[in-house]
């Protein structure tokens, strides 16, 4: 069964539009793309100098282009959809790829936020250990806190060393900084600071206990995540089995894409299979999230 010229033309236009969208996103992500293209084309190095300096600038622009491509990883769905559309002579894979772009983007953003949260939690633990070490060495609490930069502790952290340096309300600044995702441990630091100032208790010992509690909680969460790795791997493997079956069928010459994309029964099977696939992924995700929820054990 051959595809009509109108379908092939529509697929070609879809490929062209996807290519234009990908190039436009890369240009918007990095305005220096044109300059890098000139460098790669041998148009000379902008500015003065040559030789090693040109190679260094070329490497710098290459790194920027790599970061620009990594910032738009969800657009990789478009060329994959276009390739399947060309193999199956149908525009449906292009439409499905376009619909998958915001979903993949949402997943990538959620994963990035989770990584930022874990980085912030680790920074809180390191901060507690650093301040406790400074206090054990004989420094005053305000001096020990004022010397910390804490770039990974969220946007509200700069107010904490400023309050410590100029005699402000350090516990209140700590509680405000604790509003950032992953920085909830700063509430314990604020309580230790308040007790140490009002009651004369040892701040170093309190910070060490807070760091130990946060580290134990992080280790428990990492152990649980390691135990759930097998469940995630099984779910991913089962989700990829239909695509593997289609690839094997195409390699054997059975033409599964032609049946799925050009016959009523195939379209019905494709819709039903897609719904079941999405339901299975969502169900597995809910099971994993329920297991990871605090107090689930």
From TrEMBL:
<protein>
    <recommendedName>
        <fullName>Type II secretion system protein GspF domain-containing protein</fullName>
    </recommendedName>
</protein>
<feature type="domain" description="Type II secretion system protein GspF">
    <location>
        <begin position="132"/>
        <end position="249"/>
    </location>
</feature>
<feature type="transmembrane region" description="Helical">
    <location>
        <begin position="6"/>
        <end position="26"/>
    </location>
</feature>
<keyword id="KW-1133">Transmembrane helix</keyword>
<dbReference type="GO" id="GO:0005886">
    <property type="term" value="C:plasma membrane"/>
</dbReference>
<keyword id="KW-0812">Transmembrane</keyword>
<keyword id="KW-1003">Cell membrane</keyword>
<feature type="transmembrane region" description="Helical">
    <location>
        <begin position="78"/>
        <end position="104"/>
    </location>
</feature>
<dbReference type="InterPro" id="IPR018076">
    <property type="entry name" value="T2SS_GspF_dom"/>
</dbReference>
<dbReference type="Pfam" id="PF00482">
    <property type="entry name" value="T2SSF"/>
</dbReference>
<keyword id="KW-0472">Membrane</keyword>
